Amino acid sequence: MGLRVTLNQMTWFAVPIVMGVVAEIFGRELSFYVVGLTATVMIVVLGLWASWRNIFM
Amino acid sequence: MNDTPRDDIPWQTQAAIYGAGVFSFTMVLISTLIMPLLAIRLTDSAFLIGLIVGSRYFLTLVLSIHGGALMDRLGTRRIMIAFAVIAVVAPFLFPLALLLPVATAIPVIILLQMVAGVSDAMVWVGAQALSGHVMKGRRRYVGRMTSIVRFGAFFGPTLFGLMWDHTGIWLTFALMGVWSAIGLYCVLKIPRSSEESEIVHDAPVRLADLVPRIADYLSAFRLIAIPAVALILLVTMVRIGATGVQSSFYVVFLKEVEISAAAIGFLIGFAQLIASGGSLLASPLARVVHPHWLTICAVFMTVVTISITPVLVFGAPVWVTLFLLATAIGLRGLCLGISQPMEISVLGRAVASTEQGKGAGLRTGVKNNCQPASKQCRPSSDGCGCRICRYS
């Protein structure tokens, strides 16, 4: 749980800053799509990895 | 204080813990509305807005494992009181910082954000811990706490959004201070448990106790070697990332398209309310869909529903825009509610089934608050205690 807390807080801290940088580059509207697409790809990759490693068994 | 036959925890004690929980947790949500609104008043730079908003979680990040250990060593209530006092003072300093030149005000606001953020978080973590210690982790009490916290989470952001729209920065932050002061009053009303009295009596505050211990962190990080743990932690990070968007540029974007602060506050509160239903749905859904896949699908939807925000604002009448935004954020809340108990349940099972998880790594970190969380968040028995695990 302590690990989960740490990683969660790391994300809470980093995401607004990263999105701020992305918004500076692509604009605020596009930053939603860029961050959303990145997160979507991550979640799909995690799902595929989990299937490949048989984590769900 | 009298006990009743049905409730062996006095209602005054329950009220104090629920109060501490609701006033600290709602302050976390309120700040996700107010701070982006403040940031866009200070600067146009998206990076600085992100930095101002994100900095609220920096000290909480640094102290997340250590904070739990500190509560173990010095006593939960004592730590809560110290942070609750800071949480009362900090909101009054924000408007004062605005009196400084902008170049100075922004770094000061960032520092204040760090201090205010960790204060709210520690009081909230402590309230969860005490609901486990004082109320012995009973589902009935945690369920009540969850209901009350959700109720506050719905009304808090809307109320402060209205304040922002109709009063101004000074009064809004003053009310935030008053809000935290009520939380402090509740913390002071929490009686010391016998266990904690011993801790406090036997353990004076030493500098060594206040310094984070690397061993606490290393033992926790060893758990990432377990694939199921790694999967859930990464999935949780993605979910939190989407929530990070909601608590920063979602507010900024909507404010820039002339949505009122009250309406944005309502949307944030609405998502919390719908998340309650989602938590209750987690258990029945987990019987149909494998918990791992359910978690991944729910998190996928939380990402999609926040990412499409600009699509929903296309120049339609305001009520149509608000309806679309409420539908999207409601769906997001539902998926959040489903994913959180799943994450905690899957993580708990993965760790429990592995010898590594039985070592000191898990125990020392946030022992106090993870006990009630893990007990209450199994989806098969109870999805209700899950939203309160945001800091767990």
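qc> The CA atoms of residues 41 and 376 of chain B lie 41 Å apart.
qc> done
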